[in-house]
Amino acid sequence: MDFDVIVIGGGPVGENVAARTAAGGLSTAMVEKELVGGECSYWACMPSKALLRSGHALAAARRVQGVTGGSLDPQQVLARRTGFTSNWDDSGQVQWAESADIHVLRGEGEVTGEREVTVGGEVHRARQAVVVCTGSVPKMPPLDGIADARVWTSREATSAREVPDSLIVLGGGVVGVEMAQAWARLGSKVTLVVSGDRPLPRMEEFVGPLVAEGLREDGVEVLLNARASAVAPGALTLEDGRVVRGSEILVATGRVPATKDSKPLTVDDTGLVSDVDGRWLYAAGDVTGRALLTHQGKYQARAVGSAILAQVRGEEPEPWSAGQSNADHVAVPQVVFTDPEVAFVGHTAEEARKAGRDVKVVDLDIAVAGSSLHADGYKGKTRMVVDERTRTLVGVTFVGQDVAELLHAATIAIVGEVPVDRLWHAVPAYPTISEVWLRLLESYGL
């Protein structure tokens, strides 16, 4: 069959590309080999946050004087999680796709020629564009015995039907810390094995220790500077000879693009794949390696869809138009849904300095009237990184209970290049945690 656009991958990224081109009047097919809705809907963002939310709500309630008692019902938490995945049934997502005039092709899609995609032995051609949105897959470390050991990846960690008696989590990234806390709060004895001196090492240096402190308060044993050398069923051997035992082992050591060679597809800001003649092959999401985050992939997808529609009209998208994903370079927001939460956007102070910027760093504890009301003994920290030449923000980090909702203001300030002198006039409501913005700007010197 021929279509105007063929999208390979039916996760959130592929859905957004397909929805945009279909809404623009182009006949669009979307290829999916597993569940329409993809990793985020069934094995990542949604189920993982559902597993975390109940424990966070209980912990938040206990931090306010006058609240006593309360406990988690693990089976009810798991049932709520399963509700968010529709019990791993994608019929609702398929119905949505069909209602949006997207033709769903079941099977593994492969680009087999110019504007040509083969699915289950059938060749389909795209008159305008092929878009690769195949996402990413877990990266397995080269440990002795790992090929034969029955280990969890993020999929098993978010879809398990029972709480394991004990769990070893290998890896101190986002998946590692989130799943360590989720299962610890549901009653598992968790050990987190981190190869470096802190979890979340790519974030500001104060982030990891604060998250590790929160994990320890929930009973997680956090092993730092602990490198694994071998895996066996129920046991992880470290380079120093120690053996960590657990009924399940979650390997959370990163992800790689879901391509044949695990290498990303290099794209420009419209999503056009480099070194392919004819302006017909696009890509978006994790497969590009630009920002392995669902929201950023969906942002790229909207740009790709808009760029394809512009190309059909004979137009070229301008920078910072809907057809270019320029924010990938300056303001990628991310939340780590642990307790305390981590909300970060832009560049760390170290990254900004390495890029040659003259920066001023403002560090503060989150201690305002709003935080005091929010939780007794509220603990949190924030950092603002300012480019002194332009007097604009280039990076902001918050760590603390429920700080995720502060992040979009920071994202807007960075994307909009709002000068700190103007930002001073964005008055935060009292008494909210957002009042920390006023304290940051006062500390900066305004």
Describe, in plain words, how this protein is organized in 3D:
- By secondary structure, the chain is an alpha/beta fold.
- The chain folds into 3 domains: 2-43 and 85-137 and 256-327, FAD/NAD(P)-binding domain; 154-253, FAD/NAD(P)-binding domain (3-Layer(bba) Sandwich); 340-444, 2-Layer Sandwich (Enolase-like, domain 1).
- It has 14 helices and 21 strands.
- The chain has helices spanning 12-23, 38-42, 45-62, 74-84, 91-99, 154-159, 174-185, 207-217, 294-312, 349-354, 369-374, 407-415, 420-423, 436-444, and strands at 2-8, 28-32, 102-106, 109-113, 116-119, 122-132, 136-138, 166-170, 189-193, 221-223, 228-232, 235-238, 243-245, 248-251, 255-257, 281-283, 334-336, 341-346, 359-365, 380-387, 392-400.
- Strands 1, 2, 3, 4, 5, 6 and 16 form a 7-stranded mixed β-sheet that branches. A 5-stranded antiparallel β-sheet has the order 17-18-21-20-19, sandwiched between helices. Strands 10-9-8-14 form a 4-stranded parallel β-sheet.
- α1 (12-23) packs parallel to α9, α3 packs across α4 and α3 crosses α7.
- The longest helix is centred in the last third of the chain and has 19 residues, at 294-312.
- The protein is globular and about 65 Å long.
- The chain starts with a strand and ends with a helix.
